[in-house]
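Hi there. Long-time user, first ticket. I'm pasting a complex I've been working with (about 549 residues overall). I'd like to know whether the download I got is complete or cut off, because the file seemed smaller than I expected. Thanks.
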Amino acid sequence: MEAVLSIIIGILEQGFIYGVMALGVYITYRILDFPDLSVDGTFPLGAAVTAMLLTKGTNPYLALLAAIAAGALAGLCTGIIHVKFKVKDLLSGIITMTALYTINLRITGRSNLAFFNENTIFNSGIALWIPQSCRIVVIAILLAIVVKLVMDWYLHTKSGFLLSACGDNKTLVTSLAKDFGKVKIVGLILANALAALSGAILCQQQRFFEISMGTGAIITGLGSVIIGMNIFKHMTFIQGTTAALVGAVVYKGCTALAIALGLPTTDMKLITAVLFLAVLVINSREKGDKRA
Amino acid sequence: MLKLEDINKTYNIGTVNEAKLFADFNLTIEQGDFISVIGSNGSGKTTMLNIICGSLAIDSGRLLSNGNDISRLKEFQRAKFMGRVYQHPDMGTCPSMTILQNMALADNKGKLFGLTMGVNKKRIDFYREELSRLKLGLEDKLEVKVGSLSGGQRQAMALLMSTMTPLEYLILDEHTAALDPKTSEIIMALTDEIVREKQLTTIMVTHNLRHAAEYGNRLLMMHEGQVIMDKKGQQKTETKVDELLDIFNSISVECGN
Ligand SMILES: Nc1ncnc2c1ncn2[C@@H]1O[C@H](COP(=O)(O)OP(=O)(O)OP(=O)(O)O)[C@@H](O)[C@H]1O
Ligand SMILES: [Mg+2]
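Hi, the file is complete. Here it is re-exported in full:
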C-alpha cells in the first residue's frame, strides 16, 4: 500500500513538474501549430541556470526567475531565426536546441552538476510550512497551478487573444494590422520560458543537473498535450491548459507504470518515445474513424 | 484616392509556366468610389486586389494612396487603412473564439494588443447593436464559438469586423459568392449600407452581374489583365444586366472559347 502511494506521489510530482513544460508546448503546438524542438534545449537550459545559481548560493526562487528569462531569450532566438531569417519551423528549433547544448555546458562548466547541500524551493522558505512527507508534491502542484492560472489570465488579455487568433486564422491577424511574425515570436518566448521553468523546477527537485536531461523533453510535452486534448475531447468546457496539465500527469503515469512493471530506469527515453508513438497512432486512428 | 501606376506582374518568372498578367497596368480610384469589378475567371481580379492589399509583390510600378507611395508597405501595415472581406467565410473570423471575443478583436484593430482584458465589458452593448444590424440573431449568441456558425453568419460577421474601425478602403473579393441567394442579398444590402455610412472607397469583385449593375457608382470589366470596360456615373446607372452579359459573351467569342 505504502509502495503504491509513493509511486502515485512520484507520478504527481513528475507530472506537475513536466506539466509546466506541457503548458508551454500547448502554446506552440496547439495554439501556434509550430513544432518547436528548441524545448529540448530550453528545458535543460532552465536546469543549468538554476544549478549554476544555486551552487553560488542564490535564492532558489530568484533562480527560477533567471531560468524563465533564459528560456525566454532562447525562444526569442528561435523566433528570430524562423521569422526574420525565414528558416523552417522545425529547423529553427533544431538550430537553437543544438546551440543550447554547448551553452548549457558553458553555464554549468560540466555535464553533471549536483548540489545536495544548497537551499531549494523544496527545502527552504515557505516549503518548511508543509509536512515533509508531501512537500515536493504540494509545491509542484502549487507551482503548476499558479502557472496555469497566469496563462489562463494571459490568454484572455488582448495580447492573448491575438496569440489565439494567430493559431486560428493568420489572415485575420494581418487584417488586424498586426505582424503575424511578431505574434509568433511572442508565443515562442512564452513557450520556452515555461520549458525552462519546468527544467529549473525539476533540477531543484532532483538536486542535480545533467546535460542530457532535456533529450526527449519535447516528446513528453507533445505527448502530454495530445493525451490531454483526447481525454477532454468531448468536454469543451475544460480549458486547454487544464487538459495539458492532466495530460502530463497521465503521460508520466504511463512511464512510471512501465518502470514499476520491471523495466530499468535507464530505459526511460525508449519508454517515452514508444509511448509517444502509441499516442500518435491512437490519435490518428480515432481521427480516421471519424472520417469513415 | 488610390492610384495604380504602371504595374507589372508576371507569375512564375524564369520557369516554363511564366505568365505575364499585368503589363503597365494603370487604374485610378477616386475618393468615395464604389467600384464593381467583373470579368471572366483568371482575368486578374483577385491578383489586382492582392496587389492593392500587399499580399502579392509587384515586379515594378507604384501604388499611391492620396499621393503617398504605399508600394513598400507590408500587407499588415496597409491593413491599418484597408479592410478586406474574402470569398471564403473562414478567412475573416476566428473559429475557436466566441462571437464576443471576435468582435473585441476587431474593435481593437490598430491599437495596442497589450495586457488589458481582451473583452471590454463597456463595449458589449455596442457589439450587440452592431450584430443586430445583421438580423441573424447573433446578438443573443455572444458566447457561441464562431466556428459553429454557418458560412453566411460568419461572412456577415467578417463584414462587420472588417469595417468596425475607421477605414479608407474596403476590398471585397466575391464576398457573397459562398452564400445562398437570400443571405447573399442581405449581405449585399448591408455592404451598401456600411459603405455609404462610413463613406468607404470600395472595390468589389463579383460574378453576380445584377449586383455589379445595381450597386456602386462605377463598373469595371477585366479581361486578361486589362480593364476592357469602365463605366462611371450616369453611364453606369444606365447599364443593364443583359448588356453586361452580351459583352461577356462577345469577349468569349473573340477568344474562341
Ligand atoms: N499564385 C499564382 N501562381 C501562378 N499563377 C497565378 C497565381 N495566381 C493567379 N495566377 C494566374 O493569374 C491569372 C489571374 O488569376 P486571378 O486569381 O487574379 O483571377 P480572377 O480574375 O480572380 O479569377 P476568378 O474569377 O476565377 O476568381 C490566372 O491566369 C491564374 O492562373
Ligand atoms: Mg478571384
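A couple of notes from our side: Residues 103 and 161 of chain B are 6 Å apart (CA to CA). The interface with chain A takes residues 74-77, 79-80, 83-84, 86, 90-97, 101, 104-106, 108-110, 112-119, 162 of chain B (CB under 8 Å).
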